[in-house]
Here is the input.
Amino acid sequence: MNICIFEDFFISRLAPLNYLRHTSELVCGCNSLLENIVSYFPGKAGLTLHSRKYISGYCREKFPKAMINELADSDYIFFNSRVIFNSGNLIALTKFFKKENNIAITQEGTIIAFHLTKNKVIQYREVINTEDDNLVSPADIDWLDLKKTESSGYRMINNPSDLILYKEEELNYGLDNELKDKKKLHTGKKCRISESAVLDTSGGKIYIGNNTVIEPFTYIKGPVYIGENCTIRAGSQLYGPVRIGSHCKVSGEITCSILHSYVNKQHYGFLGHSYLSEWVNLGAGTTTSNLKNNYSKIVLDVGDEKVNTNSIFLGSIIGDHTKTGIQTMLNTGTMVGISSNLYGAGYHTKRIPSFSWDDASSNENIAYELEKAISTARVSMKRRNVEMSEAYESMLRHVYSKNEEGTI
Here is the structure.
């Protein structure tokens, strides 16, 4: 049996975090949502990623062993890319679909997962393999004439803030899987950890990946996950739950935040309850507010809708390749697009579009020229020995064109 991880009709609500990646590559815990699924089927099943057309080329580069928008002649289990699946879910679903064929599991109108036998797969392939995006919707389930069963208890990422909301439990779950036999601390191969660094596991486990450097007088309080080839600068303070991807350089105070790989936060400044995508660079003194003075629930702008996060804690959601100048101040519930530059004195507005220069001093926002944005992104990646591919550049150009049209 093969598996397919699909993007559904509601993934636009997760912008800008999924502009340059498959939605299942979003992170909530130690690993991505995709890794949670694939790790349960190691080598046992062929993998298909169903994606938007404009990211399909990059998906083929990043996942060369997977089929992209193609279905093999086989039975399939389809998993929603924005659902947080754990091993318990996956065990239960696999057992269920062995007994029940051609059936969909839904939760509050969202397709969680569904099963197709080979003949149904051949029918569905007519839709999946077309040149259009064809994001999965409940109408597909009706068109395929599948049985439906309503379920509950699945965690869905409906808005970017949900990745912060669920991070602590998911991080602890991931650390328990990474650190077996009741271990509370893991240090990878060729790590260099200063004798003056404090690794405090009283509040949760700590995982430090291979070739990572922890400089003197750093304090790390679990639960914390730090990937490979990272540098944690001297005097840093990490208060879990914190997840830091590979190839990151960080400093200052960080609490309750998720950092993708290749994030650069090398200077002092507070980062709290925030989500940073790849290639983000925070200038010295950049500080996020994560709590209102009146302790009210934070509202996040999602598309044209204002969403009550039902939480008093939320910092900033920042898209790929965005940079901040020194002493940048970001308010609670700030959403920043990709390839933007923030600078100037005072607080920025809570919603900053992609490909823009935003001046807090004058409240002026001007468009970033596409060629200059791509050139800067290419240089940033080259500095970390990563070459920008044609497929990656194509994604940037697509997002820019849609942003310019006001359709993304």
Summary: Residues 161-405 form a domain with the UDP N-Acetylglucosamine Acyltransferase; domain 1 fold (CATH 2.160.10.10). The radius of gyration is 21 Å. The chain has a mean pLDDT of 95.
